[in-house]
Amino acid sequence: MHRETMKPIPLYHADLTQQDHQQVIHALEQPQWQDAEQTAQLEAFWSARWQRPTLALADPHDAITVLAELLQWRMGDAVALPPLMEPIWAEAFIQRGIQPAWLDLDPKTGHGGGQPMGLEEIAGSLKGWLDQATMGLPHFPFTLPTTLQPLVDISHAPLPLWRAQKEAILILQLDANLPLQGGGLTLLLLPDHLELEQARQLRPRLPSRAAVALANSQSEQVEQLMQYRRHVAERYLEKLRPRGLFALPWYHPLRNWAFFNLDFADRRHASEFCTFLQGAQIGCQLGCALPPPHQRDGMQRYQQRSVLIPLYGALQERDQKRIINRIHRWVERQ
């Protein structure tokens, strides 16, 4: 009798619903490539959520184009970036001639910190400071010189469970490997309506009708989609028994559960654990791709000891149980 092959459990999985499929198919059946009315509806939804004027853009490249003109960033200037930002953001800055100045991070929260790297090599000056609500943890206000524009990426934390600093520009990207989907569509949530009108004039193009349809559908379901993730995270927190080999994520009542990371006591255990899960057809990730060059202490610790395990609404209960059981099996073997 042959043993049944276990179905692989991916690390990432887009939480797409039947409603999403229907809305996108309907959008693709329309003759017009763009829909200004539906785009305005999306902007109004997030404006009401975060109490900020909102502008929808096709992708991060268009967002950087608008920000650079709005904030008068010039070629040769730099913007401080956290190392866990999606790689497309660094690409967009570089394409615009703006140098990413990488921050270090707190390996437990993923928030950026320390002094930006590489400032001695830039031709211009440091003009902005972009941090993020990494892994869904709230990002609390921080003090910057008045010459620096604060920006916060809230893609990991789309629910306004915490109050962002008033003067910050918030960025919400809807794309693969993020909690909400929208084909790369990016929202800028601005401090005031004057900046919104200026940004609207600078927008290169409207997002596609299909991307807007998906973003609107996901936005309508955001509470439910994030609640599914919270349910999975709370089950992990309740059931997992680390026995001193790793630490569970920091629990915070205002957390949007974007990811679930285990912080290991040493590099060897983290590597062996990840290899064990992969052998059991369970997706995991040790650290992340480092932005070059990056040798800061916090980032190196995260790279060597932090392991992501699957967390998404589509993760069925039997797969959650399988992940928990496999983790316990590895722990028992140590």
Number of helices: 10
The spatial strand order of the largest sheet comes to 1-9-8-7-6-2-3
For this structure, the CATH topology of the largest domain is Aspartate Aminotransferase, domain 2
Radius of gyration: 21 Å
Q: Could you tell me how far the N terminus lies from the C terminus, measured between alpha carbons in angstroms?
A: 32 Å
String of helices and strands? HHEHEHEEEEEEEHHHEEHEHEH
Uncertain segments are none
Structure notes:
This protein is an alpha/beta fold. The chain folds into 2 domains: 18-220, Type I PLP-dependent aspartate aminotransferase-like (Major domain) (Aspartate Aminotransferase, domain 2, 3-Layer(aba) Sandwich); 222-333, Aspartate Aminotransferase, domain 1 (Alpha-Beta Complex). It contains 10 helices and 13 strands. It has helices at residues 18-28, 36-50, 60-70, 87-95, 193-202, 209-220, 222-239, 267-279, 297-305, 317-333; strands spanning 54-57, 78-81, 99-102, 104-105, 112-113, 126-132, 149-153, 169-173, 186-189, 246-247, 260-264, 285-286, 306-309. The protein has a 7-stranded mixed beta sheet, sandwiched between helices. A 4-stranded antiparallel beta sheet has the order 10-11-13-12. A hairpin with a 6-residue loop joins strand 4 (104-105) and strand 5 (112-113). It starts with 17 loop residues before the first helix and ends with a helix. This is DegT/DnrJ/EryC1/StrS aminotransferase. InterPro entries: PyrdxlP-dep_Trfase, PyrdxlP-dep_Trfase_major, PyrdxlP-dep_Trfase_small. It comes from Magnetococcus massalia (strain MO-1).
